UniProtKB/TrEMBL annotation:
It comes from Camponotus floridanus (Florida carpenter ant). Residues 21-104 form the GIY-YIG domain. Gene3D superfamilies: GIY-YIG endonuclease. PROSITE patterns: GIY_YIG. This is GIY-YIG domain-containing protein.
């Protein structure tokens, strides 16, 4: 296939919105300070973000790190601008990538 045709074919594809991506390592930034959260999911990112957002409604013993930060500081995360750090379909490799980005 000629290079020109390949470029046309690639440009024609619609890219997925971040929230529609699966099997990823992602980063959420706090809107009010420099804290960030790094996680991984095999599901659609929108599903995982919804869980993070709703976790604050659960009993305090079940609060996530994100919910604790939101409650203790009055801050909130930038739910509309998650950063995709890595795509990986294999769970163990995704977990290793998550650890790498947390330590970075």
């Amino acid at each position: 296939v000629p290079k020109k045709l390949n470029n046309l074919i690639r440009r024609g594809k619609d890219s997925l919105h971040n929230n529609d991506k699966t099997s990823i390592v992602y980063k959420l930034n706090c809107k009010d300070c420099n804290l960030s959260y790094i996680g991984q999911t095999k599901r659609h990112l929108r599903t995982r973000l919804k869980e993070h957002c709703n976790n604050i409604k659960l009993h305090e013993s079940n609060h996530s790190v994100i919910s604790k930060h939101r409650l203790e500081s009055g801050h909130d995360f930038d739910w509309l601008k998650p950063n995709i750090l890595h795509n990986e379909k294999y769970v163990r490799k995704r977990e290793i990538a998550e650890m790498f980005f947390i330590k970075k």
